[in-house]
Amino acid sequence: MGIIYICESTTMDGTILKVGTADNEKLLEERFRKHRVDGYRGLIFNPYFAVSTSKYESVEELMKKLFSKSRIADTELYILEKELLKDFFNLFAEKVVYPKQSQSAKEKEEKQQIAPKVKRSDLGIKYGDHLAFSLNEKHSKNFFVENIDDDVVRYEGNDYSLSRIAKIFLKECDGKEHEYLNGNDYFIFNGEKLSDIAKEKGLR
């Protein structure tokens, strides 16, 4: 069991991420302190997210392959949407180590994790297909995203998880921050919500 973590730069609006691993929580705290005080490659970083997983080394290697185009040379730095990387780590998380969660937050997260992740490829959605954002049946804004794979969609040249971009669109619609949601409930493909397609296929 080990920990894989994300720190965000204090400059560049946090778009530069430092990723690393630690064997235990004590060592993680030492790494966080070092990144805050001494920095890495001339940049100062604040802790953002960390999970423990028995697959932390293989997760790190998979991340390097999947996000190779976002990696800065041969470093542990990435220019990447932090929510996208957080969602990727959550796929393998056995426990969220940072930030420390209140009991109510843990309960909400556990409820979210009861349902298995639905792959968009299982819904008949392919690379390059466009998904339309819809807040509800009576309210629809002209937001469209391009499906890249089961974990990534693209909007205006940037990559996001479906839940992350749904939060962004929702905030534009109602001005509120939304913590817990299922992106499949807010996007339509061929005139039908992804969550409804999943139900019809017995995937939810």
Automatic annotation (TrEMBL):
Matching InterPro entries: Phage_T5_Orf172_DNA-bd
Superkingdom of the source species: Archaea
Domain Bacteriophage T5 Orf172 DNA-binding: from-to ranges: 2-91
One Pfam family of this chain: T5orf172
Protein name: Bacteriophage T5 Orf172 DNA-binding domain-containing protein
